[in-house]
Amino acid sequence: MKxxxxxxxxATNLWRRKLRSVxxxxxxMIGTASIVVMVSIGIGINQGYIDSLSQSGELxxxxxxxxxxxxxxxxxxxxxxxxxxxxxxxxxxxxxxREIAALDHVTVVSPQxxxxxxxxxxxxxxxxxxxxxxxxxxxxxxxxxxxEGSGFSKNAPSDTIEILLGEGxxxxxxxxxxxxxxxxxxxxxWLNAKYTVVLQDYTDTDDQGNPKEYEFKARVVGxxxxxxxxxxxxxxxxxxxxxxxxxxxxxxxxxxxxxTDEYPNATVKVDSxxxxxxxxxxxxxMGLSSYSMxxxxxxxxxxxxxxxxxxxxxxxxxMLVAAISICNTMLMSIYERTREIGVMKVLGCxxxxxxxxxxxxxxxxxxxxxxLGLAISxxxxxxxxxxxxxxxxxxxFRSVIPPYLALGALVFSILVGVLAGLYxxxxxxxxxxxxxxxxx
Length: 440
Fold this sequence. Notes:
- The structure is a single chain.
- The two termini are 27 Å apart.
- The chain is an alpha+beta fold.
- The chain is built from 12 helices and 14 strands.
- The longest helix has 44 residues, at 293-336.
- Helices cover 48% and strands 19% of the residues.
């Protein structure tokens, strides 16, 4: 008996008892849909979190902080575990930056210096936003999108601070002599206006307590788009220019707590998310503290796996009931077809073929129930996503059915059907031919 004949015979036998077969398939359908929908919710929650981070470009970013910049020190734990070997903290200086840049999979390193106690002035308006010095070659890699202006110059003048001004910073410029305060940005020709950065040294004050002020020429060379990462609410300048100014005015910057030989923090971009944790471990082994979203995602994925197993287990109960139903259906079929089985044995049909016929019938029930279950799953998934979108939670709570889950559910439903049919098929093979023929 060929396999095509076996499948055709099994389908014919199921059709003869179509009501019972359909009811059994419905049981498999419910079990399959329960498993797929439950697991898809766990996958959706995980995927939603990753998607929200990928929009801000944080998935391939490592943030480094110095334990020594503010006079501290101590140890750095490699791997983030209390049982890991501690490493003595080191300076985040130019040597360390070069070593980090030389690591495999690192695309760019940008040390950062934040200048506080400063005011940016243009005409009668001024803003007290801090100024962050970054690597001018890392602007694009850091996700800083310049929507107006030319950006940092290749050969920037050392006596002028070039500024990338965030869209959200515009409204912070106010006339200090005016009592008016609103959220509107003043009418300024931002890219062509003349600016002055005024640094206040509160360690050197006059009789009235006013700090000594140091002025630096500045100009805005680009407007930064407001985005999810918050770049539009910052002011950036070139690290190269800042270092030159700090060397020329070393005492001034030392008075306000800024060091000229190391950095408080730095940002590292890695070529892909899969390499972030490996690069981060290497940075920690250098004695530097670091943090990345990859650590959070790794912990979340571990929790997500537990959630998916729990949700899948709930659906598995329904599939177990379906398997019992398949077994019962096959046993009933054997009792009803005892004479038919006996005739097949007398005519010389192999025992393995008789067993395969019942396994095929059970497999077809599993396949049919699996297909129906997947159809129901996609419908329920679409309904869940639509409901969550209406409530504004579509990004964080949703149902996602990836191809591997759909294929795995279909294979699993067939496997459940075949396994549930093992005992009935063995029972059919053990029937005595003569006793089966005499059966009424």
